[in-house]
DNA sequence: CATCTGTATACCTGCAGCGGCATATTGCAC
DNA sequence: GTGCAATATGCCGCTGCAGGTATACAGATG
């Protein structure tokens, strides 16, 4: 994987927040919306940007689309994601995001269908 | 230091090459020109870009301008520079640059006036 | 002073990304 | 099938950056 491409993905705050949230485990789009409190379009486009460059992977699960960090990341990517996680731990915004994520659902991480919507899985 | 700003600096190949060359020690602009074999303007502008954002520092020494990595880098910057060095060691282009740098002058790193020009220090 | 060398800056063009609005797509429920 | 929820995509305007050419600046030399 090309180093420059990786850094291009990392040089936007929204994308950093998305990747930061993915570190603990897979999430669906509505989680990102709930935590970042940004428009659906904005989040969706940044996720598409990341996916097109191999920084995240996605999978459909019923109505939802689950995003995750690559299962087998290239060495350079792994190193930089680790570095990001390390650095993000020192910035308020990222910590707040993670805190909000935890509030969303305790067993959320790596759990089944997201159940994020008001309608939820019904 | 803002993480996003750091990554903005890292998302250009020329700038990565410059930073990679600075890892062993300070250099003057003509060294970058000799190693990268890019136009003077291109290199100068990228160095200005990096300096404006605190990724490098510069100091005049007679006719030459010496660039170096920050003496007291912020934690996030230090982490990412270390990561970059690690990743760069695996890419041919960066290794070739370092090899060329070594050929330029054995005692070059951290030495005195650069002596790079034909006229040199005379 | 004039001149040369090393380096920086101004101005321009082209291109890519960001964010917004509107709309499309996919799958579920009825 | 209809309708709705979750998500993606197309188009537009704006901004910022990359790289080029020409020019300016600073210091050394004579």
Description:
The structure is a homodimer of 122-residue chains. The first copy, chain A, has 122 residues and is mainly alpha-helical. Chain A is built from 6 helices and 3 strands; from the N terminus they run ααβααββαα. Chain A has helices spanning 3-10, 13-22, 29-36, 40-52, 75-88, 92-104; strands spanning 27-28, 57-61, 64-68. A 3-stranded antiparallel sheet of chain A has the order 1-3-2. In chain A, α3 (29-36) crosses α6. The structure holds a DNA duplex (30 and 30 nucleotides).
Compact description:
Chain A has 122 residues and is mainly alpha-helical. Helices cover 54% and strands 10% of the residues of chain A.
Topology:
2 copies of one chain form a homodimer.
Chain A: H1 3-10, H2 13-22, E1 27-28, H3 29-36, H4 40-52, E2 57-61, E3 64-68, H5 75-88, H6 92-104
Antiparallel strand pairs in A: 1-3, 2-3
Helix pairs in contact in A: 3-6
Chain A binds a DNA duplex (30 and 30 nucleotides) through helix 4.
